Amino acid sequence: MEAETANATDAFGIPVIPVIPSSSEAVRRKRRAIADAAAAEFLAEGFAAASMDAITSRAGVSKATVYKHFGTKERLFLAVIAGLLRETCAGHEPRASALAEAADLRAALIALTRDRAVLLLRPDVMALRRLVIGEIDRFPQLGRLWYRVTYDRYDGPLVEACTELARRGQLDVPDPVLAVQQLVAVTAGVPQLVHTFAPGTGRDPAELTRVVTSGVDLFLARYAAS
Q1: Gap between the Cα atoms of 83 and 202, Å rounded
Q2: Cα–Cα distances in Å, from 212 out to 115, 116, 149, 182, 196?
Q3: How far is residue 180's CA from residue 125's CA, in Å, rounded to a whole number?
Q4: Which partner for 75 in 6, 15, 125, 171 could form a disulfide, CB atoms 3.0-4.6 Å apart?
């Protein structure tokens, strides 16, 4: 049973945490320390260059303890980075359902997409994005997870909201999924692309608002019901 637990993965092929279950608070704190240390090392160095010695030193544990809890460096990387992605996105889901009730749809779309852009441009989120992109060939399951989490927490609710707005006659969206993809691309997607490949780019709130507003206007020019 213990061997089966140690090799358990989720639907994306990502190791399930904890590899060895325990009700001990001390064990949970140790596992958290390892995960935090590994996240810092992987984000700074990438997978290949990350040092297990550095991780154990950061966490204040032995290598044997790390391997006992996570199995291998590969499993440690997958478990930690997947957990970091889920934690980063938790609690930041857009209030997409409120769009259908908004008195001013344009203003609501601007506020929602700007909030999303602000989240995506956070330094920790950008560092995580660059890491996943850099390791996508070695760990494609992280890319699949990123897409799933993004859709479930952001795009999916927006698709539902656009479908409802179309039903009410406020939008004309033959393909809600495509429409949401386009909305994201011309709002949050524009600054995200720039900051992904040009990390030193400055963050100007006024410019971000201008870009997002222009993107929303473009979206409404195409999809607002006439």
Answers
A1: 29
A2: 10, 10, 22, 12, 17
A3: 21
A4: 15
Give bridge partners of residue 224 from the DSSP assignment: 171
Domains and CATH numbers, the chain: 10-86 (1.10.10.60), 93-223 (1.10.357.10)
**Contact at 8 Å (CB) between 190 and 219?**
no
Angle at 143 between CA 159 and CA 114, to 5 degrees: 45
pLDDT digits (tens, 9 = 90+) for 50-87: 999 999 999 999 999 998 888 899 999 998 998 888 88
What is the arithmetic mean of pLDDT over 168-184? 96
| pLDDT over 70, % of the chain | 86
pTM: 0.81
Contact call for residues 162 and 176 (beta carbons, < 8 A): yes
Query: Taking a C-beta distance cutoff of 8 angstroms, is the pair 132, 143 a contact?
Result: yes
From the list 151, 146, 121, the residue with the least C-alpha distance to 211 is 121
pLDDT of residue 77: 93
DSSP 8-class letter at 13: S
Bridge partners, residue 171, by sequence: 224
Nearest Cα neighbor of 147 from 156, 138, 157, 135 is 156
Contact, 12 vs 145, CB < 8 A?
Answer: yes
